[in-house]
Write a sequence for this structure.
């Protein structure tokens, strides 16, 4: 997969490596969304069947686009970027992200499932959310080819986090020039004549949607950090109340109405310089930026010279996803409305709708009627109404459709509380001349931003253009506000949306069968597995390379080069073959960052595990030792180490012998 390029592109950079994983790479609790999606069934093959499985569980999107956004990336930035060489355009990587809601009864996937696939790699890479653990899980499906039995493993997190520095997917900034949004990429893909698994050559709309999903996913950890470190139990209950009311009503409350007890004080104490918000985007990269693109008329013109292919695949050091990404923002004070919207994003839409129905059915609450004067404007087959008092505002339109009435609401505001705007009305004219209407928001009840339910509207016409409206409001949401502080979740360090709704159902005495579905399914899942690489001892400098480079390069696959995999003799042979490239990468630590031809290795994100930062590593004995070992291997085979640094990295001897399977 090509990192998963421009963005997701980097999205799955680590999963293809098959590196040694440890128990910390398995979920500490819960399971990934992908595990729930697959259940006990094998991962469907070929890839279009997997796409169909995911789409079958999603709601249709209102924008006419599929809720599963998919694009192609032939020249990306993943560590296995060369797996399809030289046939990059015949075998592009596929990147997919779910940005739509799941149907009721299926595991929620919106902003929580990202996939990467390359046919030549015979694997699928997955980043998917684990709401019980409060983190994204990194997985890889091996043996993904015809005639084989696909196997799903959890991947090495330390390896993945070298690129995925926020523990989440990444994507490039606009204009997404590694995708078919770039006309040059689209032209060469089209010229191959392949249908690419039924995936159309998409433009900026799809790339933008994937980018947005990755950005939202990266903020999950921000909401969880605030929940864990700055919000008291009382604050958490208030936050959940506001987020659930927003999820049920579709309208954010006024910021003045949000009461997060002690949050501002705890925020300043916890983050005196402000809460750092990490960036999820990597720089845009146009593979054709330095190439004059010929007009492509036929597949015959796809036989590019080797030099051009090397130039197309070249990744300058400043565009590598391994580079540390700068802080995007610092939040010096909490943006309460953004916090409400963010936490609501961790609540599954179908689960919220089911809870709403249960609240209506099981909660007894008194109704309250409000009356306000109205002005009616009569037009052919419809009536526009505008009703207002000092603190009540209602406007909309009703129409005749046969024997029934229908309409829309433009605005309803009661005090500071508002409804969403996507409301419909249906009803009838009574014999007494009153218009009785039931408001709806899609298939859901209509609620104000404070959670109160609007159950009924009655319009009375006194004269042709004058009358009054009677609203019926039911505050069944008061039961939620009362129950929230008592939930065990309020003392938990991880916010779990499914658990929140399940505990509310239990506290309110509702039917808990739906809430228990996750636990029942989890108990039926096959055990979570790691891909194990057998430990062994290496001699001489090979042992030192294994210590500092084995996390990435002691792997079961050749991408990135697995020169540390195998027995002692095999590893030493591979180290000799790769010595030039190893020496080049290690030497970059002694080159100013702006002048580096490639990213220095080991990557800066890996140094903390060995007790170093960038400055201390640059002058460390281990780095000097590794450089000396690589230098000696080059000299032993008749090479000149100093000359290595004067040549382009791509022209150095390949890391693995060509006979490596």
């Amino acid at each position: 997969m090509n990192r998963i390029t421009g963005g997701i592109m980097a999205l799955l950079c680590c999963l293809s490596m098959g590196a040694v994983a440890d128990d910390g790479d398995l979920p500490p609790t819960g399971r990934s969304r992908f595990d729930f999606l697959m259940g006990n069934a094998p991962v469907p093959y070929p890839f279009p069947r997997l796409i169909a499985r995911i789409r079958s569980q999603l709601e249709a999107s209102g924008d006419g686009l599929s809720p599963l956004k998919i694009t192609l990336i032939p020249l990306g930035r993943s560590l296995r970027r060369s797996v399809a060489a030289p046939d990059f355009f015949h075998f592009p990587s596929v990147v997919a992200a779910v940005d739509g809601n799941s149907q009721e009864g299926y595991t929620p996937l919106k902003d929580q499932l990202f996939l990467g696939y390359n046919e030549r790699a015979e694997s699928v890479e997955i980043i998917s959310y684990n709401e019980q653990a409060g983190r994204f899980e990194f997985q890889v499906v091996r043996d993904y080819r015809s005639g084989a039995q696909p196997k799903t493993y959890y991947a090495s997190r330390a390896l993945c986090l070298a690129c995925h520095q926020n523990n989440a997917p990444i994507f490039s900034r606009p204009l997404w020039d590694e995708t078919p949004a770039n006309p040059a990429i689209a032209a060469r893909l089209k010229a191959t004549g392949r249908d690419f698994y039924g995936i159309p050559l998409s433009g900026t709309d799809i790339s933008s949607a994937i980018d947005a999903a990755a950005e939202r996913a990266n903020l999950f950890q921000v909401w969880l950090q605030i929940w864990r470190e700055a919000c008291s139990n009382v604050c958490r209950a208030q936050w959940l109340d506001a987020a659930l009311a927003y999820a049920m009503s579709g309208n954010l409350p006024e910021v003045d109405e949000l009461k997060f007890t002690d949050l501002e004080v705890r925020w300043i104490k916890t983050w005196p310089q402000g809460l750092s918000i990490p960036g999820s985007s990597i720089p845009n990269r146009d593979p054709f930026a330095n190439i004059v693109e010929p007009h492509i008329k036929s597949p015959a013109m796809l036989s590019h010279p080797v030099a051009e292919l090397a130039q197309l695949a070249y990744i300058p050091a400043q565009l590598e996803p391994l580079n540390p990404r700068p802080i995007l923002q610092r939040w010096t004070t909490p943006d309460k409305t953004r916090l409400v919207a963010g936490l609501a994003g961790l609540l599954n839409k179908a689960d919220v709708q089911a809870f709403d129905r249960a609240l209506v059915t099981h909660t007894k609450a008194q109704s309250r009627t409000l009356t306000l004067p109205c002005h009616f404007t009569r037009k052919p087959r419809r009536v526009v109404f505008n009703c207002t008092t000092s603190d009540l505002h209602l406007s909309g339109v009703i129409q005749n459709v046969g024997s029934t009435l229908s309409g829309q609401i433009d605005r309803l505001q009661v005090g500071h509380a508002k409804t969403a705007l996507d409301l419909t009305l249906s009803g009838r004219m009574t014999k007494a001349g009153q218009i009785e209407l039931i408001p709806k928001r899609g298939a859901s009840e209509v609620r104000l931003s404070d959670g109160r339910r609007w159950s009924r509207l009655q319009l009375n016409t006194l004269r042709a253009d004058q009358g009054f409206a009677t609203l019926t409001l039911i505050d069944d949401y008061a039961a939620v506000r009362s129950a929230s502080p008592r939930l065990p979740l309020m003392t938990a360090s991880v916010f779990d949306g499914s658990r929140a709704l399940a505990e509310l159902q239990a506290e309110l005495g509702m039917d808990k069968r739906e809430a228990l579905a996750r636990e029942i399914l989890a108990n039926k899942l096959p055990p979570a597995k790691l891909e194990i690489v057998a430990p062994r001892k290496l001699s001489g400098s090979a042992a030192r390379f294994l210590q500092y480079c084995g996390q990435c390069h002691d792997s079961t696959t050749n991408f990135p080069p697995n020169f540390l995999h195998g027995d002692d003799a095999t590893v030493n042979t591979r180290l000799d073959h790769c010595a030039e490239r190893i020496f080049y990468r290690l030497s970059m630590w002694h080159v100013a960052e702006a002048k580096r031809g490639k990213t220095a290795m080991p990557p800066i994100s890996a140094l903390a595990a060995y007790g170093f930062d960038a400055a201390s590593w640059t002058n460390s004995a281990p780095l000097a030792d590794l450089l000396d070992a690589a230098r000696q291997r080059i000299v032993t085979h008749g090479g000149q180490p100093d000359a290595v640094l004067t040549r382009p990295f791509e022209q150095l001897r390949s890391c693995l012998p060509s006979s490596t399977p």
